[in-house]
Amino acid sequence: MKTKLLILSLVAAISTVAVSRADLIDMQALWSGAQFGNGASATATFTFDTSLFNNPGVTSLTGSAFSNAFQNLQLTVSGASAGNGVFTVTDFSTGLLDTMGVTLDFHSELVGQATMVGSWGPGPIHGISIGEFNLFSNGFSPLAPTAYNFFTLSTFGGQNILLTSFAPVTPPAAPAAVPETSTWVMGFLALGAVVFLARRPVAVRA
Q: What is the value of pTM for the model shown?
């Protein structure tokens, strides 16, 4: 009986690892100043923990929750009159996401996904934006860009840049991913337990 409980526990642990990995998506966000008549732009890459966001709903994350939701964040600003460079999660304090009442598909391009009132994303200049996604600098990194308006960041040089894409990073074609070491270990332990149980002598009752 104890062996069976061990096997069930190991299977549950392996399932938990698989689920937690499924919540993590490598994302890329792009901003451009073209609609505002400037040449500034920004590119951000990060590992997005979708389990920390209300989907559907509005989510505002700060502190460690923000750091966990935007793991390995690197936001690069270029073409601005000031504030060009690479910024990380420590340069920001808050991440805001509003799905506009629908369940967004984080495995596809978010900008343009349908909501009940229009396409999710920024509208034309002075138009109506549907939903929201933004990053707020922490105030201790004055050169970092920060939220200015819906889907809009403002660089240290004062150029506004508008979100144009928010999508998962498409990985290059490659062989099947190798499971993490922890997954291998738990898998072998579970297999060993099964073999041990199978080889145990069966008591014969008189």
A: 0.75
